[in-house]
Design a protein that fits this description.
The structure is a single chain. By secondary structure, the chain is mainly alpha-helical. The protein is built from 34 helices and no strands. Helix 8 packs antiparallel against helix 9. The longest helix is centred in the C-terminal third of the chain and has 38 residues. The chain starts with a helix and ends with a helix.
Length: 730
């Protein structure tokens, strides 16, 4: 009794240490904990981790503050919180293992309300908590099916059937969904073909074709799918031809030329399926004849660049037809270039006298095949000989092949193992030295043949690895290292007299040509750098040094397969005409401004800016003040809007968006100009999509405005409508 009395007195004394303000603060803390727990709801599955944190926190709080329970008021709060805590612990213990199912149920509810995006997110959460939630995966498959994502749908359903142990009912659901997905998309593709929407049908059918290749349930009618694919390919081709003919009839030869190139690209990808291409040859012939006829009429230095572009286009198009037609076209172009286009004999002489360079020229004995794609061949060789994280045991490597050879003498097998070890660490000299020891150990014919076979395997692997390193050295720009590696490889092949080995010839042929392709790319980079040096000299009016750089660029040469583009070097002399034209246009603008015709001034200034941008005069260091900066200096928002409206009226849409851009500099927000931005985007896209020669303009607009959120309404409208108008027939 005495002991209990002492404890009671002690506790009472301890509780009495709380002042009224401390007690008030503690009750306030209890109320906060009670409020947090009272907010816990089974409807908010996303907050389960938060709820668990609150429960743990409340539990710790109760244990920590239990010493104050001698106070009746505090004890009442304690009981209230304790009761709420126990209830929520039970709730969370029930909900947590079922959270995946709860997400699934909520997702179904959202999908039924046509909130598919939100439902999709919840299904992903359900699967993240339970990767084998069959019904959540099934609903994802349904959503994919609704979006015509055939491959994704079938992949999900196949994963359910093969990896998730579904019930009999669930298996039936998945099987029915597979059949439904196939039937639905096949019928949709057939309907699109009837509507002559071949491109849309083709996209669906190619997915169905991929599905048929992995069809384990014999759902597919592969022959029907392939037949419809062929119908689509023919339909797309016919559409190309129809549009091109229409463009020719309208006299839009530039559009016809672009469509002819697109058609040729399509033919190259579908040549097997499309046998009759006579209509394509017919339209190409008409376009080429037009270009050559027009080039004949363009006289004088001022038209030389346009004439050159037309003849280059005619040459490219004639290659698509080939045969006698190409031969005749090239003959006409040669005659025209000799009589009409001024040729720079000095540059021609420098280029013709330059010595061809290349590894395939230095080691020409290895070049037996110039038709195959060297990069593709190199990829196959690396798969055979060179190990990587994805290809740990190349099938033709010494390590793999040596395990297949067993000799009578164990000492020789040990040497093979030792050689394999040295090969793995790229110590080729030591590896060959050990093989030489194995050769001395071989006493019988069988062992000698086995050692000889391993020599061949080792030399092939060393050749592939060294040539691969040489190719990488070129990539890094280390030409001396590449030279050394190729020379070492050649010496090794010569020393062991393996020049006639077919595998060695294949490796060297492929790598030498692939390396030369990379060297060619480096040489093109050199020319491009020189172009910039020339431009810098022109900007500084240092024409003597510019000429030295031009001569240096013309001297750069690769092997016979290396096609270097030096057109820019040749055209730089002609490009001075463009800055002069810009200056004349600018003087005209200044004259109009001096006459105080402000509207006309800005209309002409917009043309000036368009000329500046499309001719890339910034590369010639021409100084230009943008239209929006000029308007900003005037600080007149009414004028800026009036100018934009006038530019829209005269279809100068790029100038119009720049005029609107001046409002940004004056402090306006993008939303203030939302309506007019969207309108300009729509009008500009219509103009660009109808004229194929301005497709490049589309990319320029994206590059120019993509990183400026202020123009987001314009760019979004422009992109959306550009795609829309491109698909429309004109």
């Amino acid at each position: 009794m005495y002991l209990l009395f002492v404890v009671f007195v002690s506790l009472q004394g301890y509780s009495q240490t709380l002042s009224s303000s401390q007690k008030k603060e503690l009750i306030k803390q209890y109320d906060k904990q009670i409020k947090d727990l009272a907010e816990i709801s089974s409807d908010k599955v996303d907050l389960l981790p938060v709820y668990q944190y609150r429960v743990n926190k409340a539990n710790d709080f109760i244990n920590e503050k239990a010493v104050y329970n001698t106070d009746n008021e505090i004890y009442a709060k304690y009981l209230e919180l304790k009761t709420l805590l126990n209830h929520n612990k039970e709730l969370l213990e029930f909900l947590t293992p079922r959270s995946s199912e709860l997400y699934y149920v909520k997702a179904l509810n959202l999908i039924s309300q046509n909130k598919k995006s939100e439902g999709y997110s919840l299904l992903q959460k359900s699967i993240s908590l339970n990767p084998k939630n069959v019904m959540a995966h099934y609903e994802l498959a349904k959503l994919s099916s609704d979006s015509a994502q055939i491959i994704k749908t079938t992949q999900i359903l196949n994963d359910i059937l093969s990896k998730m142990n579904p019930t009999a009912e669930e298996k039936k659901l998945c099987a029915n969904m597979l059949v439904y997905t196939y039937d639905k998309n096949l019928l949709q593709s057939i309907a699109l073909i009837k509507e002559k929407k071949y491109a849309y049908a083709y996209d669906i059918l190619t997915q169905l074709d991929d599905f048929c290749k992995k069809d384990n349930m014999n759902i597919c009618q592969s022959a029907l799918v392939k037949k419809n694919i062929e119908a689509c390919q023919q339909g797309i081709y016919n559409d190309h031809i129809t549009i091109t003919k229409r463009a020719i009839k309208m006299g839009e030869m530039k559009i016809a030329s672009d469509f002819a190139e697109n058609t040729y690209d399509y033919l190259q990808r579908n040549r097997v399926e499309l046998n009759d291409t006579s209509s394509f040859d017919e339209i190409v012939t008409k376009v080429v004849d037009y270009y050559i006829a027009t080039a004949k009429t363009l006289q004088g230095a001022k038209n030389s660049e346009l004439r050159g572009d037309m003849l280059a286009k005619a040459r490219t198009l004639s290659e698509m037809v080939g045969g006698k037609f190409e031969e005749n076209t090239l003959r006409q172009i040669a005659l025209l270039q000799g009589t009409l286009i001024p040729s720079d004999t000095k540059l021609d002489s420098i280029e013709n006298n330059a010595k061809p360079e290349g590894y395939s020229l230095d080691y020409a004995d290895y070049i037996k095949d110039t038709v195959s794609n060297p990069e593709e061949e190199v990829t196959k060789i690396e798969k055979d000989y060179i190990s990587s994280s994805e290809n740990k045991n190349p099938k033709e490597s010494f390590a793999v092949q040596s395990t297949k050879v067993k000799t009578i003498d164990k000492a020789i097998d040990d040497k093979f193992f030792e050689t394999r070890t040295f090969m793995q660490v790229n110590n080729y000299e030591k590896a060959l030295e050990v093989l030489e020891k194995a050769n001395r150990l071989a006493k019988i014919e069988g062992d000698k043949k086995a050692v000889e076979q391993m020599y061949i395997r080792a030399i092939r692997e060393i050749t592939a690895k060294r040539m691969s390193n040489a190719e990488y050295a070129i990539f890094e720009g280390d030409i001396p290292k590449a030279d050394s590696l190729v020379a070492l490889t050649n010496d090794l092949i010569t020393e062991y007299k393996m020049e006639e080995d077919t595998a060695i010839q294949r490796i060297m042929n492929s790598y030498l040509r692939a390396i030369d392709n990379k060297v060619c790319s480096k040489k093109q980079d050199e020319i491009n750098v020189l172009v910039y040096d020339i431009l810098e000299c022109i900007r500084k009016n240092d024409f003597y040094t510019a000429e030295v750089y031009i001569d240096k660029a013309m001297e750069i040469k690769g092997n016979s397969e290396c096609r270097l583009d030096k057109q820019r070097v040749r055209s730089l002399k002609r490009q001075i005409e463009e800055p002069l034209q810009y200056v004349a246009m600018k003087e005209n603008c200044e004259q109009i401004l001096s006459d105080k015709d402000t509207i006309k001034y800005f209309l002409e200034y917009a043309k000036l800016e368009y000329y500046y941008n499309t001719h890339k005069l910034n590369e010639m260091s021409v100084i230009h003040t943008g239209l929006r900066e000029v308007l900003k200096e005037m600080n007149n928002d009414d004028l800026a809007i009036k100018i934009a409206e006038s530019l829209i009226k005269y279809q100068q849409y790029e100038g119009a968006i720049e005029a609107i851009g001046s409002l940004k500099l004056m402090g306006y927000k993008a939303k203030h100009t939302k309506k007019i931005q969207k309108r300009i985007g729509q009008l500009m896209s219509m103009q660009e999509a109808k004229r194929q020669d301005k497709i490049a303009q589309n990319y320029r607009m994206e590059d120019k405005y993509n990183n400026d959120k202020w123009f987001k309404y314009f760019l979004k409208s422009y992109k959306k409508n550009f795609i829309k108008y491109q698909r429309m027939k004109f």
